């Protein structure tokens, strides 16, 4: 699993103009079983997507398709993560 932590590179008003495209991108990841959860940070300086992939290369390949990335609105940092406790402990890959 990889936490993809974004940092907005443009003002929030500009980011929000592409939000529907970004949310559609996330919906596509969810349909394919590649996104476990996602959300905006508070305060809204970026967001976090939890990707269910095996390698950082896979995570970077997927995130390169995010409209936020393609439009220069956000950059992402990939952090590998192994769930060991809490509500997601025991999570099983859907596909």
Walk me through the structure.
Belongs to the YciI family. By secondary structure, this protein is α+β, with helices and mostly antiparallel strands. It has one domain: Alpha-Beta Plaits (2-Layer Sandwich), CATH 3.30.70. It is built from 4 helices and 4 strands. It has helices at residues 12-17, 19-31, 56-63, 67-70, and strands at 2-8, 35-40, 47-51, 74-80. A hairpin with a 6-residue loop joins strand 2 (35-40) and strand 3 (47-51). The longest helix is centred in the N-terminal third of the chain and has 13 residues, at 19-31. The mean pLDDT is 96.
Q: Which CATH architecture?
A: 2-Layer Sandwich
N to C succession of SSEs: EHHEEHHE
Number of domains: 1
**Weakly predicted, low-confidence segments:** none
Largest sheet at a glance? 4 strands, antiparallel
CATH topology: Alpha-Beta Plaits
* CATH H-level superfamily: Dimeric alpha+beta barrel
Total of helices: 4
**How far apart are the first and last residues' alpha carbons, in Å?**
14 Å
User: Structural class, from helix and strand content?
Assistant: alpha+beta
CATH class: Alpha Beta
| Number of E strands | 4
What portion of the residues fall into strands of 2 or more residues?
Answer: 25-35%
If you average the pLDDT, what whole number results?
96
What's the gyration radius in Å?
A: 13 Å
Helical content class: 25-40%
Pfam families: YCII
Domain YCII-related: 1-77
Family: Belongs to the YciI family.
Protein name: YCII-related domain-containing protein
């Amino acid at each position: 699993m990889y936490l993809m932590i974004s940092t907005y590179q443009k003002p929030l008003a500009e980011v929000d103009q592409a939000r529907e495209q970004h949310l559609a991108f996330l919906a596509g990841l969810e349909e394919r079983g590649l996104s476990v959860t996602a959300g905006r940070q508070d305060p809204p300086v970026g967001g976090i997507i939890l990707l269910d992939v095996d390698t950082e290369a896979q995570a970077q390949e997927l995130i390169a398709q995010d409209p936020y990335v393609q439009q220069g609105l956000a950059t992402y940092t990939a952090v590998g993560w192994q769930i060991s406790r809490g509500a997601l402990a025991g999570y099983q890959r859907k596909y």
